# Entry
Amino acid sequence: MRIAVDAFGGDHAPEAIVKGCVQAVSECNAELILVGKEQILAALLEHEDVPTGKIHIHHAEEVIETSESPVDSIRRKKDSSLVVGLELVKNGEADAVVSAGNTGAYLAGAFRTLGRVKGVKRPALTTVLPTVGNPGVILDVGANADCRPLHLVQFAQMGAIYAEHVLGIQHPRVGLLNIGAEEAKGNALTKETHQLLKSAPVNFIGNIEPRDVPYGLADVIVCDGFTGNVVIKLIEGTASALFSMMKDVFYKSTLTKLAAGILKPGLKTVKSRMDYSEYGGAPLLGIDGVVFKAHGSSDAKAIKNAVKTTALYVEAGVNEKIKAAISAYSTSDEDEDR
Amino acid sequence: MRIAVDAFGGDHAPEAIVKGCVQAVSECNAELILVGKEQILAALLEHEDVPTGKIHIHHAEEVIETSESPVDSIRRKKDSSLVVGLELVKNGEADAVVSAGNTGAYLAGAFRTLGRVKGVKRPALTTVLPTVGNPGVILDVGANADCRPLHLVQFAQMGAIYAEHVLGIQHPRVGLLNIGAEEAKGNALTKETHQLLKSAPVNFIGNIEPRDVPYGLADVIVCDGFTGNVVIKLIEGTASALFSMMKDVFYKSTLTKLAAGILKPGLKTVKSRMDYSEYGGAPLLGIDGVVFKAHGSSDAKAIKNAVKTTALYVEAGVNEKIKAAISAYSTSDEDEDR
# Structure
C-alpha cells in the first residue's frame, strides 16, 4: 500500500509532517510518498532513520496557503503539493492521500480530481468526536453547508461503515443531531430526515440532543455540514475557554500553583481526550478515492495517527463497502444531481 | 410595576419559585403575583418574611408538566399557572410574566395570548451567553427552528436593543454565527443574512466562528433557532462533560483529593460562569408583552435573577424601543406572514 502525504500542508509543515511520516512507517504497513519541494524534504529526511524504500519523495513546486481561496488556488496551482497528492491517487500511484492543508481547497480538489463514489450524492467530511465514553464519529462537519434529508441518510450509511470497519464498533448506533428527543422536534431538515432514517438500513437510535453529544450516546452522529462544523468547533472553543479560565484559578497563589501541579498530568489527559485532532484525521467519505484530512494544527503525532488510520481505511476496503451499501439502498430524490 | 410569576413551572416548583420571589422583592422595585394553587402558595409564604403588599397570589388550579405536548396542553389547561400568567399580562393586570415551565407551551401560549410586536416577523428566545469575557446574548435559541434572512436581521435589531438597555452594553457589537470568518462562507441562510446585516441599522462586526463564541467577541450573536439551541445546549453539555472527567482526576488519590480541595472554590466560580441559567432568564423578544423564560432547573437564586432582569426590561421600555426600531427599518420580504 502506498499513501501520498502532502508535506507542505498545515501550520507545522514540512517539519512536523516529515517527522510524523517517519514515525508512521514503523507502525503501519504502508510506503509513504512525501509530496512537495524535493530538496527541502530530502534535507529533512537526511536526519531521520528511515527503513529503505519506505518513504519516497514526489516533487511538487508550489504550496497552497491556508488563507488562499479554495477554488482559485487549486485552479492556479496545479503543481502544488495538495493537488499533486490528489493526482497521485487518481493515477493509481497512491492508494490514498493525507493532507493537513487548506480544507476548502482540499475538498474542492478531491471533488474535482477524484469525483464521487457511484450513487453518493454528497461526500461528507467525517471526524472522530471526542466524548466522555468511547469516541464516535460525526458527519458532515463542513463539506456541505446546505443539505437535504436524503444526503443525511447517506451520511448515516457511510458513517456506520466507517465506524464499524475502521473504528471497530460493532453494529454502530446512529443518532440524528436534533433539538429535542421526540421525533416531531427540530427543523424541516431533521424532521424529514428522522422519518427517512427509521426505514434506512442502519441501526438508527433516534435523535441525539446537543447536550448529550459529548457523552457518546451514539457511535455515529448525523447532521448537515453547517451544524456539524458548529459542533466540532464549539466543543473545541468551549474546552479551550474553560481551560483558560481554570488557568487563572491555578495561578492565583503559591498554594493553588502547588495543587495544580499535582493535578496537571490528569488534567492533561482530559484536555487531550477532548481534542479531536488527537484521533487521527478525517476522511472525506463518498469520494472515489481515499482522501484524509488532518487538522491544520497537526503535530508529528497527529500526522502519524492520520497516516495509520488511512492505512486501516484502505485495508478495510471502506470505499468498496460504501459503493455496495449505497447501490443496495437507493432512495428516490426529486433533484438528484444538484 | 407588577410581575406575574408562574409558581408551578420548573423542576423545583413551587418551593424554589416562592423563595426566589421573596428574595427578589427586597432587591427590586416590583410587586409580584404568584400564580398557582392558592392554598399551597399561602402555606409556603407563611414561613417567609415578606413586606406587606409586595407579593400577591392569583389562583390557578392546573399545572402544565414539562413533558406535556405544548400546543395541546395550553389548549386543554386554560386554568394552568402558565396560561393564567400570560393572561394577566394580556389583561393589563401584570406588566410582565416569568415562568420556568414547559418551554414549548410557554412560547406557544405567549404567541397565542399576546401576539407579536407590530412589524416583528418572528419573536426570538434570547439568552445570555456565558463567555470568558463579558457575557453577551444569543438569539434565536429555539423559538424558530427554520428562519429566513430577514428574521435574523430583526433578531439583530432586537438583540442589540436588549443588550444596550437591559445589559447596559453601549453600542453592542452584533456578530453573525457562521462557519468561517469570510463573508462568502456559510450556508444559504448565513450568506444572504451577512449581506443584509451590512446595511442594517446595527453595529454589525461580521461573522463569529463557533470556536470564538465562548470568548465574547460579540455582544449579540445572531443565528437561526436550531443552531442557537445547539449552541447553548452544546456549551452546557461540553462544560458538564469536562467537569465530570475532571472529577475522576480529582478523586484518583488522597493527594489529588487534597489538591482538588484547594482549587475547589475557584473551579466552582468557573463552573457557574459557564452556566447560562445563572444569568437571569431569557426574554421572548418581539412578543407584544414582556415574557421571560427561566431555566427549567432554576433554583431560588435563578428565579430571583430572572425577576430582577424582567423588572429592568419593563423599566427600560424595551418593547416600545423594539416597536420603534422595527417600524423605522422595514425591509421587504416576499413571504411576509409565513
Summary: The longest helix of chain B spans residues 225-250. The radius of gyration of chain B is 20 Å. Chain B touches chain A through 54 residues (CB under 8 Å).
